[in-house]
TrEMBL record:
GO biological process, one term: dUDP biosynthetic process
Protein name: Thymidylate kinase
Molecular functions (GO terms): ATP binding; dTMP kinase activity; nucleoside diphosphate kinase activity
SUPFAM superfamilies: P-loop containing nucleoside triphosphate hydrolases
Name of the top EC class for this enzyme: transferase
Gene source species: Ziziphus jujuba var. spinosa
Ranges of residues in domain Thymidylate kinase-like: 64-239
Lineage, uppermost ranks: Eukaryota, Viridiplantae, Streptophyta, Embryophyta, Tracheophyta
Pathway connected to this protein: Pyrimidine metabolism; dTTP biosynthesis
Pfam families, alphabetized: Thymidylate_kin (PF02223)
């Protein structure tokens, strides 16, 4: 049963990646050829909007990343409470999303109840994001801010730390929505390991977390904010509130969605 659904996922994922790559190539060519026309059309759209509201107004895609035990789940929850308190529509998401059938395969692998080839599990993590992509876009366009606890960066950092090729790891993520901001909770692996100790999951080992920390270093881009995660919870919380409030304002004013990996 798992075998059959896994084959379906892999076929779908392979198809999805090829389709998205073709689609992006097409859009890029189209943009190159018709860039000026597109620009004029966008200006007209803006001018014709008599309410003054920007048609690109939307919620923000906020991602929290970092090593195991750096405080992602703690801070994600606090951010949600803060935004709800302001009356801003927001939801908390996390990856892997263990509620789907793909997520259950991942969960079983992480808890050492099943064995999978490293490439295979990498593609499952990616499929788990693809199965949520269109809902993610719908939510953002409806004005909801999404706080996402782990995303594609975890996928690439963890799999490349196992020795898989870095660019190969990035490929299935191409075309997923790019975060507006990545809050990287930076902590030395040794310090993170002291926090309540690691549980029994597959990657919760100090030596491996050191490799993951190195892999994350290769993923920084302009959307990243590096946060000192060794500080007290409340200090980090305050810093994140400021960054996210600014980010939400920018998205509300109007910011087109972008896609991985464009920068
Ligand atoms: N994985 C992958 O390989 N590929 C992928 O594509 C994705 C994930 C998406 C499951 O992740 C594993 O899947 C993960 C990566 C891999 N493996 N690892 N490692 P998960 O999300 O289920 O597990 P996790 O988030 O890494 O672990 P975690 O324990 O949930 O860590 P956290 O959310 O960052 O930390 P926390 O729960 O908020 O806090 C941990 C403890 O520290 C807790 O006792 C807190 O009270 C305490 N804490 C938090 N902040 C502080 C501060 N500032 N000071 C002191 N103590 C603190
Ligand atoms: Mg967590």
């Amino acid at each position: 049963m798992i075998h059959a659904s896994f084959l379906t996922v892999c076929k779908a994922l392979n198809f999805g990646v090829v389709a998205v790559q073709r689609s992006l190539k097409f859009q890029l060519n189209n943009y190159r050829c018709k860039g000026s026309i597109r620009h004029i059309q966008m200006e007209i759209n803006h001018k014709s909007n008599s309410s003054g509201a920007n048609s690109d107004s939307r919620g923000a895609l906020v991602v929290l990343e970092g090593l195991d035990r750096c405080g992602k789940t703690t801070q994600s929850g606090r951010l949600l409470t803060y935004l709800e308190g302001l009356g801003h529509p927001a939801e908390l998401w996390r990856f892997p999303d263990r509620s789907t059938s793909v997520g259950q395969m991942i969960s079983s692998y992480l808890s050492n109840q099943s064995q999978l080839d490293d490439h295979t599990v990498h593609l499952l993590f990616s499929a788990n994001r693809w199965e949520k992509r269109s809902l993610m876009e719908t939510k953002l366009k409806s004005g909801t801010t999404l706080i996402v606890d782990r995303y594609s960066y975890s996928g690439v950092a963890f799999s490349s730390a196992k020795g898989l090729d870095f660019e190969w790891c990035k490929a299935p993520e191409i075309g997923l929505l790019a975060p507006d901001v990545v809050l990287y909770l930076n902590i030395p692996p040794e310090k993170a390991a002291e926090r309540g100790g690691y549980g029994g999951e597959r990657y919760e080992k100090l030596e491996f977390q050191r490799k993951v920390a190195q892999s994350y270093q290769n993923l920084h881009d302009a959307s990243w904010k590096i946060i000192d995660a060794s500080r007290p919870v409340e200090d980090i919380e305050k810093q994140l509130q400021e960054i996210v409030s600014d980010c939400i304002k920018t998205c509300q004013k109007g910011k087109p969605l972008s896609f991985l990996w464009s920068c």
